[in-house]
Amino acid sequence: MIKLLILAANPRDTQPLRLGREARWIEGRIRESNAAGRFTIRSAWAVTVDELLYQLNSFEPNVVHFVGHGESGEIILETASGASRPLSQAALATIFSHFRQWLQLVVLNACYSADQAESLAEHADAVIGMTSAVGDAAAVEFAAGFYRALGFGRSVQDAFSQGVAMLTVRGLPDADVPKLIHRAGVDPARLVLAGASDVAISIRRAEDPRVPERLRGLLQDGCEFLLLSDQATRLPQRHAEEENRIFLELGMRQSDAVFVVEVNRFAEVATAATVLAERLVPRETHSYDWTLVVKGNPLAGSLSLAMAGLRSGDRVLLVGNHRMPQWAPQMLSSP
């Protein structure tokens, strides 16, 4: 499922915009597409900073579309009383840095938002901003053409080109205003929205420069990707920063299968091993103690992955020992 969050702000002391029309056109073009069932759309109006944070935390969007006003280096949100509340480029980047685990695309459909888009490019795969002032009609037409193409499964680059083409077709003067920016290592011509499943995230990680090149090659060759969430590994919130994620190659003693695992470096070895076993060897895992082994050496279960010396790119083996060795059980195998 692809989660699209539409955020709108039009403070009382700014020029009125037809925000509802843009939101309706976006939803309408997606509903008309052949992938409408893969989208979940949420809209939030008169957005304040608190509302922005609430929506990002509660919805965990893959796509964020902001419609409203912008000035050089700022987008304009609202205060609780409806007045203008500028949000600086640095502040916007700081907020979005906490949500890049889910973000594929951000669209800032507001005047002079290209600088803000540049600052967000390390937190999302692709970002669209406007290099100068953009007319209300042009903003709506661009959004309609862009999201129609995304709804039909086109790449972000193709959808962007179709959105710009709509401005030319309609005879609007702002065709050179939208700007597409992407994260280093991401090809927008190959970037297709895929949501937040493990399969979808693996598509993104296969081109993510934070992932060691060898593991990216495994993903590009079809290796299965496993995301161990902080909730699954029972990590406290203070360790939840994106910078703490590491990427491991995982093997299993009883099979030749290889996986690429994304996990927080503060996760305990025993907890991470147990979560992996529950994912990969679901039958009777309660009767085994699971651990990770590196070069034949079991890692102490009470240590964090970082304290055990694991770094991105390392290869680990998932091994289970029966708690009642007198039973001499066979290792679990797939049916």
Automatic annotation (TrEMBL):
- Domain CHAT spans what residues? 21-162
Which Pfam families did the record assign? CHAT (PF12770)
What is the recorded name of this protein?
A: CHAT domain-containing protein
